[in-house]
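Researcher: We're reviewing a set of sequences before deciding which ones to prioritize for further study. For each one, I'd like a predicted 3D structure that I can look through quickly. This is Sodium/potassium-transporting ATPase subunit alpha-1. If possible, include the structure in token form so it fits the rest of the review sheet.
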Amino acid sequence: SSTINGVEEGRLIFANIKKSIRYTVSHSIPEVIPQLLTILVPFPTILGALQIILIDLGFELFNSLSFAWEPVESRDGLMTEIPRNPVTSRSIQILRERKARHSNDIDPETGEIKESHGIQKYLSTIKKPFTKNFWLDLTDETIGEKLIDGDLLMYSYVEMGSIITIGCLVTWGLVLNSHGMSLSDVRNMAKANKYFTDSSPDYKLNNGTIINGKQQVQYSSEASSAYYIGIFILQSFNLFACKAKYYLPFGKFAFKNKATFYSIFGGATVCFIVAYTPPFNSIFNTSYTLSPVWWLPLFGFGIIVLLYASIRILVLRKYRPMKMNPEIAGLQMYPTIWSTRGSKV
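Model: Here's the predicted structure for Sodium/potassium-transporting ATPase subunit alpha-1, in token form for your review sheet.
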């Protein structure tokens, strides 16, 4: 019926928005960590500001929007989940407790919260975080599923964000090491604050090799390109990992959405044009001399992304299973003269 279809569509929209957020937030840590390393270690620029803008407005935008066309992963699973905001005795009690806390803020005539005006409105907004009720409301027990919850933040920031960051940093280091530059070399050069420009003086590496300014720029740009491409490749794997909730991310459902492949193709076009087109190299701190061989470690970490997501689903399925509504066996009605059409029961 139309009611059932409406409920299904609403649940699908909620699920896809949550998947999109889970995917989008995952690239935040790989963007932040390089900036911290550049400042604290220090290292030369690992990921430039323009590269970050290109990531956010380029392939990440395409990929996150592809979830708008994501079909149902499992209709049975989607429709048998408990409601997101179920009405239970506990949820009613929580609402009553919250209403009691804000009894002084409610207009007795209208039953609605009193609204402040003018400067009083801004003062109340500033004071709100310093009130007891604010923190009680913030830490209130929640019944049902939230759009942004602890599980989503843990997956995106801590778990998948760490895997993607490690994969990109390892590849970045391997590219530098292929030119004889150890991490201590790179750190010492960045600390001296006079290298990694075309006019920089020559530098003698720990292995005895001497590199001039142009070589320093080239090697650093190649490593930066590898990190930039790494975010695209690993996030492409994460795109499929974020699709999975009821099943492992290897089923047919993961490949039903054509928009996924259109977005990956569009993102790859932007990513590799910037990385391998000389006119863009000087602008985005990339280098067309980066060998495609360095994509291989990134694909290896991409497989780790899918394996980790699969193991995570299996572990959660065992130790924290999803709450489902019990199946209803029939209408549970007693036979009447109308249902039996006058026959004896």
